[in-house]
């Protein structure tokens, strides 16, 4: 938390000095080695979609501040194997849907190295402050679906990734230019420790989730 506070203060002091800005739309996948994540997703990854903005703070280096969110979920069946029909579909009544949404505030920097031919190599490092909820829904895809049980947790983390960025000349108009990028690296959000605070005077642990593994990210943006 102290690191994020320092980065935020640095960002505010840098706005007046910036001469170039960027705005990006991102799509990413954060992997995990946590076996408990199988309850939510057999693919063991959390998707993340969001936006980040940046400004020049040094030669070829931009400060980045972004907000990202992603949700995973699955249906959990509570009956016997005999309650599946001949097509493998669930025929019983005992089931519920469990889901988790992770929201991330990211602050860091991206350094670009010009390789020529409108190609940059990139190195991006960011600190994270994240909020996650764990809930049981009637329908995780339906807006406003009743939430039977809902837990919240916060955790810090970080990411580091390298990649390539293309700045096609056809997307350059005056001082404004577009770019497309892809990065791969490592992301680590420390454990979300979910606790039930309503059923006892002392919080009761109901489990934890870790996001720690391969990070894949693609983005499209503009510089101006």
Q: How many domains is the backbone divided into? A: 1
CATH class: Mainly Beta
C-alpha geometry: elongated
CATH architecture: Beta Barrel
The number of distinct β-strands equals 8
Low-confidence runs of at least 5 consecutive residues: none
Report the average pLDDT across residues.
Answer: 83
Strands ordered across the widest β-sheet: 1-2-3-4-5-6-7-8
The total count of helices amounts to 1
CATH topology: Porin
Distance between the termini: 31 Å
- Structural class category: mainly beta
Strand content: over 45%
- Helix percentage: under 10%
Q: Radius of gyration in whole Å, from Cα? A: 21 Å
What letter string, H or E per element, gives the SSE order? HEEEEEEEE
For the sheet with most strands, the description reads: 8 strands, antiparallel, barrel
Question: Can you describe what's shown?
Answer:
The chain has an eight-stranded antiparallel beta barrel. The protein contains one helix and eight strands. The two termini are 31 Å apart. It is mainly β and 224 residues long. Helices cover 6% and strands 64% of the residues. It has one domain (2-70, 101-132, 152-223): Porin, CATH 2.40.160.20. The model has no long low-confidence stretch (mean pLDDT 83). It has one helix spanning 2-14, and strands spanning 21-31, 45-58, 61-77, 95-116, 119-137, 147-166, 177-196, 204-223. The radius of gyration is 21 Å and the shape is elongated. The longest helix has 13 residues, at 2-14.
